[in-house]
Amino acid sequence: MNIDAISMRMLSNIGVGVALADPEDLRIHYSNPAFADWFSIEEGTSLESVLGNVERGDLLNELAERDAIKLDVAVKRKRRLLTIETVIRHAESDGRKILLVECQNISRLRETEAMIDSYARIAERKARELEREKAQVEKLLLNVMPRSVYEEYKTFGTVTPKLYEPVSVLMLDFVGFTQMAAAADPTVTVTELNDIFTGFDRIAEMHGCERIKTIGDAYLAVAGLPTPNPDHADAVAQCAAKMIRYLERRNETHPHQWRARIGLASGAVVGSVVGVQKYVFDVFGPAVNLASRLQCLSKPMEVTATADFGEVGIEGFVAGNSRSVDIRGFGPTDVVKLQLEGAIELAA
Fold first, then answer.
1. Is residue 140 part of a domain?
2. Whether residue 333 sits in one domain with residue 267
3. Cβ(318)–Cβ(338) under 8 Å?
4. What is the CATH number of the domain that holds 99?
5. pTM, rounded to two decimals
6. What letters, b where the CB count within 10 A reaches 16 and e where it falls short, cover 143-170?
């Protein structure tokens, strides 16, 4: 068997499609079985018809400018769409110029690449979703605990109870909320309560106070934790004054009149995260209990505090005379009433 016969047999059996075409009229003069099967070659078939949407003029211009061109050709075989990588280059045979066309079926490669791209897009989307969920979880946790406490919990998975001393506590409760909630549209009541608590949050943040929690219509904030603050008493006093002012201005334009009582106390508290499934940062201790008792002693739109708060200058507020009150759990305690300037009555 001579070399030519061996070459022809190899061309007939290899999985690569090979064809020879005239560079002038682009007629295909030879194609091996793989090429003929992919493109359904018949006598007189033109190369431009094999390449699909490629224009004859464009093809000739590209071949004139370059030694070889490479493109992917889509071929539909039965129910499957094949991707054939096609390379066309100039060649010579017995001194005659020809076009050598080499084709390779890269359908599986393209399918694999498409699958990898699809998986990559899915992974990227999942990563973005996880980041969004992480940010939402962080936002939710920061709503129930200070950032430093959150960082400790995120790092160690737990929060060590800490004694914070001294701090000042603000306890606020609304007058007549139970009757209002029972008589009014619950949607309206909750919406207004949410608006008011949002305003309180801004006031607390402005003065460096940490809102610990809300319990129904009660609002608890602390100054001096988790970061110590030597002006903790002044911070909660200023908060109390602005909260009363905020309610006064709001009541001028709203049909529902919200009136609050506030208690202020200083002392020690213990802070930690409590719960396993529903995490919440909470504080416990004598300062919290005393602020709650003092809130109960207040009249509507009035602040009751321990006597030392009377020495804190609060813009727009005046302090009454100190008096001793027997408070459950604390015994005789010197307290002072704080009212807005211009109030009709100032308790001694």
1. no
2. yes
3. yes
4. 3.30.450.20
5. 0.62
6. ebbbeebbebbeeeeebeeeebebbbbb
